[in-house]
């Protein structure tokens, strides 16, 4: 049998082929598009229109019960360009996540302030951690039988300490430049936000920003403090951000392209 050409390979599996992985009432179908074969899940419902949902699992099409399969496939073909683009983006991000997956072992590298720290593991009766800036190494001392979770926990705690120190330095600097005052700041582990600000002046910053360079950290700090002058994302708000951080667009682009799902898993 000849190997399939790239055009003949499925764009993405909508879900695992196991029936248990399908949503109740869903069926796995295949359709030939100009870009190649497309696998998708079809789900019938009481909705009035055909809906499309693209996730890491692939494409799910939800259609009214009275719409024919021919019309459903015509609708998919009509949105082929959008569907293929979104699926390719999902596949690319999945490949990036796999490539950036970190192995928690001696010699592994941890993204830190835009660079990388090399983990050096040492057997010791008492847990401890030391940063050697000259060699870009993070020496972690743990009992020899310590589980991986213990290694993750001590590294996370160290990163959070560094985040508190750095944020405490950058917040007053940008607050002064913006002419605002904040009440306090706390660390957050939010999966979808790098920071937030309340009208009462409470700033929350994601400690995982320590994986990024100073430019991205300063952008988030300036962004949240700017909300103390404009609690929105209007053109006026972005003008305020630009007044203290002109390179904000480039920093925002980096954060959008490398979201939390691309970072080490703790």
Key features?
4-stranded mixed sheet; single chain; alpha/beta; 6 helices; 266 residues
Structural summary, described in words:
35% of the residues lie in helices and 25% in strands. By secondary structure, the protein is an alpha/beta fold. Helix 3 (148-178) packs across helix 4, helix 4 crosses helix 5 (235-244) and helix 4 (214-226) crosses helix 6. A hairpin with a 2-residue loop joins strand 3 (51-55) and strand 4 (58-64). The protein is globular and about 65 Å long. It has a 4-stranded mixed sheet with strand order 1-2-4-3, covered by helices on one side. Strands 5-6-8-7 form a 4-stranded mixed sheet, with helices on one face. It has a 3-stranded mixed sheet with strand order 9-11-10, covered by helices on one side. The chain contains 6 helices and 11 strands.
């Amino acid at each position: 049998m000849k190997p399939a050409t790239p055009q003949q390979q499925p764009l993405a599996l909508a879900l695992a082929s196991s029936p248990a992985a399908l949503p109740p009432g869903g069926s796995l179908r295949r359709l030939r598009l100009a870009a190649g074969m497309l696998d998708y899940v079809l789900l019938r419902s009481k909705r009035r229109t055909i809906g499309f949902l693209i996730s890491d699992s692939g494409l799910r099409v939800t259609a009214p019960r009275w719409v024919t399969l021919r019309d459903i496939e015509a609708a998919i073909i009509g949105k082929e360009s959008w569907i293929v683009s979104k699926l390719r983006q999902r596949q690319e991000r999945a490949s990036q996540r796999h490539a950036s997956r970190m192995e928690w072992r001696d010699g592994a590298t941890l993204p830190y302030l835009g660079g990388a720290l090399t983990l050096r593991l040492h057997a010791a009766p008492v847990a401890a951690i030391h940063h050697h800036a000259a060699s870009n190494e993070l020496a972690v001392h743990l009992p020899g039988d310590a589980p991986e979770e213990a290694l993750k926990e001590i590294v996370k705690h160290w990163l959070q300490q560094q985040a508190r120190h750095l944020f405490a330095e950058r917040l007053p600097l940008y607050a002064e430049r913006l002419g605002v005052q904040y009440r306090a700041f706390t660390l957050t582990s939010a999966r979808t936000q790098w920071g937030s600000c309340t009208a009462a002046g409470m700033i929350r910053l994601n400690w995982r920003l320590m994986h990024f360079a100073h430019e991205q950290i300063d952008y988030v700090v300036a962004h949240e403090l700017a909300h103390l002058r404009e609690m929105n994302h209007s053109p006026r708000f972005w003008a305020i951000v630009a007044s203290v951080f002109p390179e904000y667009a480039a920093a925002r682009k980096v954060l959008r392209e490398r979201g939390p799902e691309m970072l080490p898993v703790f």
